[in-house]
Structures are given as structure tokens and as C-alpha cells.
Design brief:
By secondary structure, this protein is α+β, with helices and mostly antiparallel strands. It has one domain. 68% of the residues lie in helices and 13% in strands. Strands 1-2 form a two-stranded antiparallel ribbon. A two-stranded antiparallel sheet has the order 3-6. It is globular, with a radius of gyration of 16 Å. The relative contact order is 0.16.
């Protein structure tokens, strides 16, 4: 019970940070949506993630684990289906230039918006877990 509450809090905080980091993510109706979304995301990561990893094991072996981003994107898509207040749409990264290092602007369609959002969600969850352990 304690781990579900901790994971719900971490996933809710990560869902809160997601629209701040990615312009294509919209979360409406405030804190109640974040808490419900964090809880459902925690349950989906506990139940569906091992199942998806088992099913996609051959693809993960061939791609050296890169296919796991797509399984995270599928879980994020299922979250947006279950909670209509959370939506992910196509977006454009405006580009970045600093100290001679240039990242051009990139347009992400809806599929890759889910993949990028899942990657950023994974990184924020991992960062929060890292902060808590220290």
C-alpha cells in the first residue's frame, strides 16, 4: 500500500511537469486529474508494463532495449484514452542554439509526440526516484 501511494505521488508530480516541458501535452481540471492519472499510471506500470515487456522481448533484444520507449508510449496512450482530460497532440520543438551548438526545429507528429512524451515522463520519474533515494 505504501509503494502505491509513493508511486502515485511520483507519477502525479511527473504528470504535472510534463506539460511544462512539452508543449503538446495538455492536462485539464487540475489536481484531481493529476492524482487520478498518477494512480492509474502506477497501476498500469505495475500490471501492463511487465506484460508488454514480455510480449515485446524479441523486439527489445533486436533493438537493444529501444523498443521499450514504444511500450511506454502505448501505456501513455492508454492513459489518455482512460482519462480524457489528459491529451497529447503533435507539436513543434522550436530549436535551440547555445555556444555554437545548434539543434534545429523539429516537428513531431502524434505518434512521436507520444514517444517523446513517454521518454520525458520516464526521465522525470527516474529523476524523482533518484532524488528520493539520496
Amino acid at each position: 500500500m505504501k509503494s502505491i501511494i509513493k508511486n502515485t505521488a511520483i507519477n502525479s508530480l511527473s504528470l504535472y511537469a510534463l506539460p511544462l516541458l512539452i508543449s503538446g501535452v495538455k492536462i485539464q481540471d487540475g489536481i484531481s486529474t493529476l492524482i487520478i492519472g498518477g494512480f492509474i499510471l502506477s497501476i498500469m506500470f505495475k500490471v501492463l508494463k511487465p506484460l508488454f515487456n514480455l510480449i515485446s522481448l524479441p523486439l527489445n533484444l533486436v533493438t537493444l532495449g529501444l523498443f521499450s520507449f514504444f511500450s511506454n508510449a502505448i501505456i501513455l496512450y492508454l492513459l489518455t484514452v482512460l482519462i480524457p482530460q489528459i491529451s497529447i497532440t503533435a507539436f513543434k520543438f522550436p530549436g535551440y542554439s547555445k555556444f555554437g551548438f545548434v539543434v534545429p526545429e523539429v516537428y513531431f507528429n502524434t505518434l512521436f509526440a507520444y514517444v517523446v512524451s513517454a521518454g520525458v515522463l520516464f526521465l522525470t520519474v527516474s529523476f524523482i526516484h533518484w532524488i528520493i533515494k539520496k
